[in-house]
Structures are given as C-alpha cells and as structure tokens.
C-alpha cells in the first residue's frame, strides 16, 4: 500500500546546487545550475522574504495582501560565503543557505535554531494548469506550538492539525470543519520560548500541516503560484503579530458607534417591524447603535434597490432611526440578477464588468436573486464603478454601513459551492483563472465597497463588514465568522475564532451572537452575549427561521443579563476604543490569547478559553450549561476579581464561582480602566467626568486612554486626546503620573478616580505637589476622588 507520505513525494522536484549569487541592496539572489532561483529580501532586521522560481526568471511581483505603505529598512545586513553555505546576517537573525541543496536554516544571534528546512522547497509540475504545485517543509521540534491562520474552528494551538485555505460558504460548519470563509495563510510558531511567523502569500488553495502527517515536520503548499513566504522573527509573539500586521496593513479607526451593540436578523421587514425592534431597545433600556437590513429590503434581491412595499420611504425611515441613535447597515451581495430591466445589470453588461468563463460566456450562477452574473472586483475599473454605486444609499438615504456577504464567492446548487475554476479574472492587470483569484475575490469586493462608503460618508468614517477575506482585508473592513449554530460547541468555537483572527491581523471581528442557525436557549444566549460584549465586533444575528433572537425573545432574567453586559460594554467604550487605537497605531491585537500574553509560561501553550481583552482585562466565558463557576487558568501576575474586587495571584489554575449573571473577569493589578456612563447609543449623553477605576498594585503599571471626536478624520490632524498613566504603588503611598498628548479637548472636565484595593487609609493627597484639603467622608466611604482633568501628578499618602 502506498502511504500518504510516499504519495506526496512521488514526482517531486528539488532545487539543485547553488552556483552563484548576486547581492543587490536589500536582495540576495541565489542561482542554481538548473532554473531554480531563490531571492531573499531583507525588509527589516526581523522580516525576510523568500521567493523561489523554477523558471529561471521571476514573474511580475504583485500582491493584494501586502500594504503598499509598509515601511522597510534594516540596521545591519551582511552576506558571507562559506565552504558549504552562504550566510545572511541582520541585527536580529542569521540565515544559512546550503550550497548543495538550497535548504536554509534561520538562527537567532546566539545560534539557536528558530526555523529549519526539512526538505525545504520542492515542487511538482502541473501538466493540467501549467506552473507548479509548490511545497515547503520545515523540521519541527518537540514542544513546538503553532497559532494563527485566521478563522479555523479548532483548538487554538494548531499542532497536530492539517488545514486548508479555500474561502468557502460553510453554512452551519462544525468544530474542525475545513475550509471556512477566510484565508489567512499566516502562522506563528513558538519554539524554545521564541516566537516566529510565516506568511505564505499565495492566493491559490493552500494547505498547512502542523506535525499531522509526520510528527516532526511542518509543511505548507499551494496548488499553484510561487513559493513566496515571509519569515518574521519575534522573539515575542507581540513582535511577530505587530510585524505581520504592519506588513499586511492596519485599518483606520472605525466610528465609535461601530463598537457599540448591533442587532441583526434575516430579515427585519417591513419598516414597522424594524421600528418596533428599535423602540423595544429604547423601552427596555438595552443600548444599541446599529440595526441591519438583510436581503429582504431589496426588490427581488437586486442589489442597490429597495422593496418599496416594505420600505416605502427609506430616507425618511433611516433619518427617523438616526434621530433615535440607530445607524442603519444594509447588506450588499456580489451576485447581480440577470434581468434586462435592472439598471445595474444593464450597466455592468454594457461595460463588460462581469467575470467570464474561459471560453467567453459570462460566469452564471444561482444566488438569492436566482441566476446572476458577478462583477470582477479584481479589475480596478470595476471596483471604481462599484464604489460609485453607493452614492444613493450613503449620501442620499443616509445608510451608515454596508455588509458584504456571499463573497467567497458563494454559488448555490453546485457541488463546489463556488465558481468553476476556469473563470477568468483581471487580477489588477495580471490575468488569471479563478484558481488564483478565488481566495481574494471577497476582499476585493469589500475593498471596492469600503472606497464607495468612505467616499460618500466623508467627512464621517465608513463602516464595512465582510464574510470572506484574505490576509490584508483588515485594511478595508471588519468581519464576522459566518453562519454558526446555536450550540454550546459553537460558543466555544466563536471564542477561539475571534482570538485567532485577532492574532492573525484581522481583529475587528465577532460571531453571530446566539448562533445563526437554530434556536438558542435563554441560557445559551445569555452566555453568548456575556462573551460577545468582549469581542471587538458585537452583533446578534440569526437566520430568523426559528423564532426571534432579540433579547426580549427570552425571559426577564436573560433580558436583565443582556442589559447588564451590554451596559458594561458601553461603560468600557473608552477602553475598547483605546485597544482599537493601539491596533491601528502599532498592530497590537485587541484580544490576546494567554500564550500571547505570556509565552514563557508553558501552562498557556494549550489554553483555549481565557483571553486578555485589551491589555488589562482577563475574560473567561462560561461554555457549559448549568454552570455555577468553572476552572480557569489565571496567568502570572496579580489580578483582581472584577465582581468582588478580591485580589488573586496568578500562575495557577483555580476554580471561580460565578452566578448566572456573571462570567469570570479579572483586572490586572495596577491598571486604570476608563469608563463612560451607560448610554443607550454612542454620543447620547454629555458627561461631566471620566471614570477611572484604579486597581492598586505594589509596583508599577502603565495604562492608556485614547479619545477623539468619535467619528471623522480630525484625529489624523492631531485632534485626539491621549492619556498615558503611570501608577506606582508603595507601602502607604500611591503615585499617579499623567502624561497628555494631542489637541482634542474632551467634553468632560474631571476624572472620578475609584481607588480599588488600596491597602492603606489615605491621610494626605497632593495634586501636582500641592497638598489639597479633601472631604474625608467621601474618600473613606466611597473611595473615590474627583479631580480636575488637568493634573500631572497625584500622590496619595496614608498609613
Ligand atoms: C448568509 C449570511 C447570513 C445572512 C444570509 C441572508 O447566510 O451568512 O448572515 O443573513 O446569508 O442574507
């Protein structure tokens, strides 16, 4: 019997001996005595690109994933030739390339192996399509761990898994089901406490095998295109993720309302139904910022049309909702109904904007409207046209956000659920088949949508959400995890998917809260909302064919829990916004799995459930019915139980009691957590003070608060307010130093500082070195201090 392994090697070709090399500024090319060339480009000291060709020359270099604005530059680069190998050294790593077979190995400067080729680059020629099936294998060490790869519905540590990247409409997917909607061919390896990353920038169908087929081998391969990957050195996971995110790009700040709570269903119609939903939120005092219109708002599912029977006057309706604080978001799918009386169809046909089959006819497939043609979003002219189509929706009607769905692209009633592979695409002037364009189709649609919404929303910020995405899509759009199911297992999956997407550069994401397919019990819905408010994108959505999924579809207790947790999210908006700012400024993921938080602690390497929200809040969802608490791992350091303010020392697994209306939440000691008052929607209230919850720590901790006008682009001109706090706790003393930056003056004039866990009784307070009289009663009973926001230093002394 032939084993898998033997099959994989059958027909494989390998590079031959390196015979010469050329060094040209940041690139070093290695030539073999056949046609293989390896081009190594040093982008930064810890970011190196490896590009192979088997043709004797390289094709045009083009990538949708790489952010054109990413900065290059290294401090040191030296290339040396030894008897058996070449060495490339930067200020962070050394890469040795064997002359005999082109295999390479990357070391840190202390000669520890970071990444080592097993067979290295090899390939199989594709007779049917031309080109190669390109393959890479790396030797893996015992104890090595793997993370990343986007939306995979499996355990966080990918060791032992084989995964496939091919954007797929995977309705009601299950745990471990492959492939899913998104394609992020980027993973993080953790070996001997050092992290590195690999980004395999290849849009064909790709596979990754993390010690699944062979225990000590990790491999990745693609059905076409180039072996073209980026190596990123840590050694901290934060270095890897921020470098990757820098390379593939960061989004702009979303409008703050987009971080509020969103309510969706397939579908709210007619207008009276949507208005009832809106009114009920306000009546029950559950904050909500956005309402969604799913496909039924359209006329026969024709994009950019309205069903005038259900929605006779969209502009009036959208305006009325806006007056009550609701932003309207509408769905737009890629399939354009084949209908001669439909102007968008006619225009696209006249301009020849639809994708074509290899032999000429337009690509035709069934989606919601029936037979459709599909714009080729990989053509810049088509994207420009598409962007222009948003004028009426955004400028005239006042819609605030657009939801792109079915853009894998999904096709109904066909076995592969998508286009046939012979469909042609422009690929921005690099014509190709669907084999190459499939995985980026959704991203190019979202990109065109983003440019349209941005153009017409200006000077406000756009909001776009997509289901399918390739690496780099985060520059244009938020996303959600597709058609999940109302099961406890899916709650577990959602928790992992959002963490994983977060460390894969695509942080602005969330799951359909409560589950899309099937009906959640009240308990499951409550547990889901308790997790969902800690996801950067927070939206309840359901398929609507099994009953309602608004909070009031459940009993009073669940309604109260929903309100309590959505309230908490609205209080934490300045904290969440600061996380977002750290993401767009520095590429720091908004959610951090425990392994990211403390990779040196091997207890974290296989944890799935607990995560850090931002930098200082540890969250652990309840994932089972009838729970009175759960076991969880508290990472090293000191923490406070958010509900009881009890101090806990980390570095151990503990049992945490919870009630139905709580999940385990811990705050890092020393943290200052900024809070707004509860509002029913962003901007509802003007308030006098910003609450700062300070959790005392013996030692130092830093906290940041970013604010701006909450919408618009003035922040790019310096009109933001950035607060950087340093807290230092000593025996009987607490210092708070505040450094301010930016030209935005917040509306409030005071901070209300809540002092939590203070181990001494305050006797004296100095503000900017001046002792102030204070109302002892206030401090002693309430433990808070109201102080003008213009201070630089606060000093509490006591005994
Ligand atoms: C797809 C989407 C879902 C949407 C439905 C109807 O299944 O994933 O969110 O509600 O289509 O548009």
Automatic annotation (TrEMBL):
<dbReference type="GO" id="GO:0005975">
    <property type="term" value="P:carbohydrate metabolic process"/>
</dbReference>
<dbReference type="GO" id="GO:0030246">
    <property type="term" value="F:carbohydrate binding"/>
</dbReference>
<dbReference type="InterPro" id="IPR017853">
    <property type="entry name" value="GH"/>
</dbReference>
<dbReference type="InterPro" id="IPR025887">
    <property type="entry name" value="Glyco_hydro_31_N_dom"/>
</dbReference>
<feature type="domain" description="Glycoside hydrolase family 31 TIM barrel">
    <location>
        <begin position="251"/>
        <end position="579"/>
    </location>
</feature>
<feature type="domain" description="DUF5110">
    <location>
        <begin position="689"/>
        <end position="757"/>
    </location>
</feature>
<dbReference type="GO" id="GO:0004553">
    <property type="term" value="F:hydrolase activity, hydrolyzing O-glycosyl compounds"/>
</dbReference>
<dbReference type="Pfam" id="PF17137">
    <property type="entry name" value="DUF5110"/>
</dbReference>
<dbReference type="InterPro" id="IPR000322">
    <property type="entry name" value="Glyco_hydro_31_TIM"/>
</dbReference>
<dbReference type="InterPro" id="IPR030458">
    <property type="entry name" value="Glyco_hydro_31_AS"/>
</dbReference>
<protein>
    <submittedName>
        <fullName>Alpha-glucosidase</fullName>
    </submittedName>
</protein>
<dbReference type="Pfam" id="PF13802">
    <property type="entry name" value="Gal_mutarotas_2"/>
</dbReference>
<dbReference type="InterPro" id="IPR013780">
    <property type="entry name" value="Glyco_hydro_b"/>
</dbReference>
<keyword id="KW-0378">Hydrolase</keyword>
<feature type="domain" description="Glycosyl hydrolase family 31 C-terminal">
    <location>
        <begin position="587"/>
        <end position="673"/>
    </location>
</feature>
<dbReference type="InterPro" id="IPR011013">
    <property type="entry name" value="Gal_mutarotase_sf_dom"/>
</dbReference>
<dbReference type="InterPro" id="IPR033403">
    <property type="entry name" value="DUF5110"/>
</dbReference>
<dbReference type="Pfam" id="PF01055">
    <property type="entry name" value="Glyco_hydro_31_2nd"/>
</dbReference>
<keyword id="KW-0326">Glycosidase</keyword>
<dbReference type="Pfam" id="PF21365">
    <property type="entry name" value="Glyco_hydro_31_3rd"/>
</dbReference>
<comment type="similarity">
    <text>Belongs to the glycosyl hydrolase 31 family.</text>
</comment>
<feature type="domain" description="Glycoside hydrolase family 31 N-terminal">
    <location>
        <begin position="38"/>
        <end position="209"/>
    </location>
</feature>
<dbReference type="InterPro" id="IPR048395">
    <property type="entry name" value="Glyco_hydro_31_C"/>
</dbReference>
């Amino acid at each position: 019997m032939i084993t898998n392994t033997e099959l994989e090697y059958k027909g494989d070709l390998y590079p031959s001996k390196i015979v010469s090399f050329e060094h040209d500024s940041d690139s070093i090319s290695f030539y073999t005595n056949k046609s293989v060339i390896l081009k190594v480009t040093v982008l930064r000291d810890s970011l190196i690109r490896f590009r192979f060709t088997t043709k004797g020359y390289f094709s045009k270099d083009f990538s949708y994933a790489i952010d054109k604005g990413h900065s290059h530059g290294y401090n040191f680069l030296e290339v040396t030739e030894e008897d058996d190998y070449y060495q490339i050294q930067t200020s962070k790593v050394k890469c040795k390339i064997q002359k005999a077979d082109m295999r390479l190995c990357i070391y840190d400067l202390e000669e520890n192996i970071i990444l080592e080729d097993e067979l290295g680059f090899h390939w199989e020629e594709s007779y049917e399509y031309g080109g190669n099936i390109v393959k890479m294998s790396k030797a893996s060490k015992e104890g090595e761990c793997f993370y990343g790869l986007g939306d995979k519905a499996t355990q966080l540590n990918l060791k032992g898994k084989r995964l496939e990247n091919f954007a797929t409409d995977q309705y009601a997917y299950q745990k471990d089901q492959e492939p899913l909607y998104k394609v992020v061919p980027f993973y993080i390896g953790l070996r001997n406490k050092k992290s590195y990353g690999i980004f395999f920038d290849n849009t064909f169908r790709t596979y990754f095998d993390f010690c699944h087929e062979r225990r000590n081998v990790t491999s990745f391969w693609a059905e076409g295109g180039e072996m073209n990957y980026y190596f990123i050195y840590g050694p901290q996971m934060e270095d890897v993720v921020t470098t990757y995110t820098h390379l593939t790009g960061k989004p702009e700040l979303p409008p703050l309302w987009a971080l509020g709570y969103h309510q969706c269903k397939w579908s709210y119609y007619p207008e009276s139904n949507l208005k009832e939903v809106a009114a009920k939120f306000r009546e029950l005092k559950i904050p909500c910022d956005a309402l969604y219109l799913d496909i039924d708002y359209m006329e026969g599912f024709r994009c950019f049309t309205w069903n005038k029977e259900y929605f006779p006057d969209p502009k009036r309706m959208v305006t009325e909702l806006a007056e009550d604080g609701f932003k309207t978001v509408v769905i737009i799918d890629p399939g354009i109904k084949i209908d001669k009386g439909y102007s968008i169809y006619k225009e696209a046909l006249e301009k020849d904007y639809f994708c074509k089959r290899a032999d000429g006819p337009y690509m035709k497939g069934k989606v919601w409207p029936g037979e459709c043609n599909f714009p080729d979003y990989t053509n810049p002219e088509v994207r420009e046209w598409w962007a222009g189509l948003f004028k009426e929706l955004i400028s005239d009607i006042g819609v605030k956000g657009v939801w792109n769905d079915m853009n894998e692209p999904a096709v109904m009633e066909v076995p592969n659920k998508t286009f046939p592979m012979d469909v042609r695409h422009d690929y921005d002037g690099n014509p190709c088949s669907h084999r190459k364009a499939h995985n980026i189709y959704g991203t190019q649609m979202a990109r065109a949508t983003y440019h349209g919404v941005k153009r017409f929303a200006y000077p406000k910020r756009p909001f776009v959400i997509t289901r399918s995405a390739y690496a780099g899509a985060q520059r244009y759009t938020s996303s959600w995890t597709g058609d999940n199911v109302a099961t406890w297992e899916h709650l577990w999956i959602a928790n992992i998917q959002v963490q994983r997407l977060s460390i894969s550069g695509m942080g602005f994401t969330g799951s359909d809260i409560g589950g899309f397919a099937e009906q959640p019990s009240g308990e499951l819905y409550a547990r889901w909302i308790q997790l969902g408010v800690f996801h950067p994108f927070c939206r309840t959505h359901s398929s609507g064919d099994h009953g309602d999924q608004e909070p009031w579809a459940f009993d009073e207790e669940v309604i109260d829990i929903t309100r309590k947790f959505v309230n908490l999210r609205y209080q934490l908006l300045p904290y969440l916004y600061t996380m977002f700012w750290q993401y767009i400024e520095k590429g720091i993921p908004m959610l951090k799995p425990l392994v990211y938080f403390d990779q040196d602690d091997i207890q974290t390497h296989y944890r799935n459930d607990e995560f850090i929200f931002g930098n200082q809040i540890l969250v652990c969802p309840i994932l089972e019915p009838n729970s009175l608490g759960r076991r969880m791992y508290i990472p090293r350091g000191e923490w406070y139980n958010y509900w009881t303010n009890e101090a806990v020392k980390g570095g151990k697994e503990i049992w945490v009691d919870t009630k139905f209306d709580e999940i385990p939440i811990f705050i890092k000691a020393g943290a200052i957590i900024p809070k707004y008052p509860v509002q029913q929607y962003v901007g509802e209230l003007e308030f006098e003070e910003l609450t700062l919850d300070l959790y005392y720590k013996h030692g130092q901790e830093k906290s940041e608060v970013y604010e701006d006008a909450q919408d618009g682009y003035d922040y790019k001109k310096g009109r933001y307010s950035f607060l950087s706090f340093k807290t230092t706790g000593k025996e009987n003393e607490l210092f708070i130093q505040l450094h301010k930056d930016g030209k935005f003056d917040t509306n409030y004039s005071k901070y209300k500082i809540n002092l939590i866990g203070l181990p001494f009784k305050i006797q004296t307070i100095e503000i900017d070195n001046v002792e102030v009289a204070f109302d002892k009663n206030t401090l002693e009973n309430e433990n808070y201090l109201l102080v003008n926001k213009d201070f630089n230093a606060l000093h509490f002394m006591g005994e």
